[in-house]
Amino acid sequence: MSDESRAPKEERYLEKIKELDLIWRINEQIMSFEDLDTLLESILAGAVEVMEATSGSIMLIEPPGSGIMVIKAAYGLRKEIVNKASCKVGEGIAGLVAERREGMLLLDDLMDSRLRTRRKVSDALSVPIIAQGELLGVLNLNTKKDQAFGEFDLFLLNTLIKQVATAIERGEHLEEVRLQLKELEDEERKTLDEMHRLTAELEEKRRYYQRLRQHLDKLYRDLSALSGPVA
Beta strands of the chain (E only): which ranges? Predict the structure, then answer.
């Protein structure tokens, strides 16, 4: 087999290995789910490693339906950038990707002219995170190690993003269910405390009634004795 015919197969094997690696990481995080922030950080770290990027971020629309995206997880970015970064759908690189709902491979000589003056990017991948037709946000990866990102990387990330979107959606639902459980457990605890208080109060009222009844019975007996004929 020639080197030329072997190369595409090796590339496909590499693609599948990377895909399975990140899918395994995502499933592992879902199984040991702690909270959404931890899940997002783990997904991003896995994507950065698998895609051989040097930095990246996950931006989610918050609150849902607002059209405003904020960074929820970051890797290799300065804290001041993370704290200030937000954009509307349609604005900037991430906003444009979100608006178009399709991934973008960004290189100096390929960048949209609308983006040149907004941010200096020499090499980046940005793909929308969509679950069941709903736009959740955007995954951004910057500067591949040793070489530039290519079409293969964009294709691979577009393939992996489906798993990422499913994991984020499930994580959001898990966090929502946990929040509801906590609220109901708190309400249940308050209700039980109130029931115990009322039970104790009812028991005290019952004992008071018994004392009252005994006193009344004694008074009735005294009244009956006093009302009888004088001996």
Answer: 53-61, 68-75, 86-88, 104-107, 123-131, 134-144
